[in-house]
Amino acid sequence: HLAQPATGDNQGNQVYGLVAEGFAVGLVIDSGTTAQTVVGYNSSINASEFSDGGSNTLILAPVHSTLRVPGGSTSSLAVAFANDPNTGLYRAGADVGDLVAGGAVAGRWGNAYLGIVSGSAIAPSLRFTSEGSLGFYRSGASALGLSYGRLVLPTDAPASGTATGTAGSIAWDANYLYVCKSANSWSRATLNTF
Asked: Per DSSP, which regions of the chain are E strands?
């Protein structure tokens, strides 16, 4: 409902309050000075706008459409938690978004990729929730590291040296370790007990 408070705001503007479920949002009817909060419908984009009278605007598009928020930055997130304001999301650039945790970028997504930070052997960037120190990280230029433990490969040995394969593939069985050196060209090494 629309209700007029007993007095105007502290700048002498006449202010009306839009009340929904007990939350009031100021709607400036007569703004002699810069509005503190403005709410209105923008017909050019078919959406409701909330503004602080400055550069910050929240756009609420119609039902079944889009919630639009300011682009934000690492230190001033576009979407954050009330009790954890340095964790959330912001727009890092055209078609690029960053995921921030504790004020630091933890991941990035774009039009055709999902990126993560490099990490380290003691804090791998791709890890398991059940075993946080086990995972993968960028160990150097064009190099992927395993933080610790073993990399377990399934048994999928080629039937012959010319079996279908992609260069760089590795396979094994009880007797041999197989490496595909080039397309459909395998070599093998005997496995000996030590």
From this structure: 2-3, 14-20, 23-30, 38-42, 47-51, 57-60, 67-68, 79-81, 84-93, 96-101, 104-109, 114-116, 126-128, 131-140, 143-146, 170-172, 176-182, 185-190
In terms of Cβ atoms closer than 10 Å to its own Cβ (0-12, 13-18, 19+), residue 180 is buried
Could you give the CA distance from residue 87 to residue 175 in angstroms, rounded to a whole number?
51
Q: What would the pLDDT profile of 30-88 be if each residue is shown by its tens digit?
A: 334 444 455 666 667 666 666 666 666 666 666 555 677 889 999 999 999 989 999 99
Task: Tell whether the torsion through CA atoms of 6, 9, 14 and 20 is positive or negative.
Answer: negative
Q: Is the pTM of this model over 0.85?
A: no
Residues in the chain: 194
CB 119 within 8 A of CB 126: yes
Query: In whole angstroms, what is the distance from residue 79 CA to residue 55 CA?
Result: 16
Which candidate, 170, 140, 135, places its Cα nearest to that of 154? 170
Sheet holding 114-116, edge to edge: 79-81, 84-93, 96-101, 104-109, 114-116
The C-alpha atoms of residue 119 and residue 107 are separated, in whole angstroms, by 11
- pLDDT of the residue at 70: 86
Q: How many CB atoms lie within 10 A of CB 93?
A: 10
Q: What is the mean pLDDT of residues 16-24?
A: 39
Chain-wide mean pLDDT for the chain?
79
Q: Report helix, strand and coil shares of the chain as percent, to nearest 5.
A: 0, 50, 50
